[in-house]
């Protein structure tokens, strides 16, 4: 198990709590998917699983000696370890409320708002750059991202939705029958 003290700091950060609350208020009447902390955590977990599976498919086993081996291998191969992947997932929609207020793309607003939170929580400059690029790319088609983290977030964002049991799917612009399949 790889502990994540910096991710736990994000969850306790005043700005994270404030922006999560603003998202909740802005989406109180929304009938489609909401973007609360549960969605952020689901995306974080699925993005991490996706990158672990991708590593195994691309390069073989992760299970050589050392408890932090998987983390080291992901860092070496994709430039992002477990904490960066989780931080990106948890923060990817943190700017959603900004889009409701000003129509600014929430991926770009989220990248901007995430930066000082990540700094406060002890992420390095290099880690912050990769995380904010991933956040800024999370709405792109997964084949169009420049970063592997952006691709993981874009895929996880769709896979995190329970479309099959959604009462609003008939009117949802995102819904397709294929989204009812569990892929990860
Ligand atoms: Fe989003
Ligand atoms: Fe999302």
From TrEMBL:
Q: Name one Pfam family in it.
A: HD
InterPro entries reported in the protein's UniProt record: HD/PDEase_dom, HD_domain
Q: Keywords, A to Z?
A: Hydrolase
- Source domain of life: Bacteria
SMART domains given for it? HDc
Can you name one GO molecular function term for this protein?
hydrolase activity
Domain HD/PDEase: where? Answer: 32-171
Q: What is this protein called?
A: Putative HD superfamily hydrolase
Query: Can you name the source organism?
Result: Desulfitobacterium dehalogenans (strain ATCC 51507 / DSM 9161 / JW/IU-DC1)
The organism's lineage is: Bacteria, Bacillati, Bacillota, Clostridia, Eubacteriales
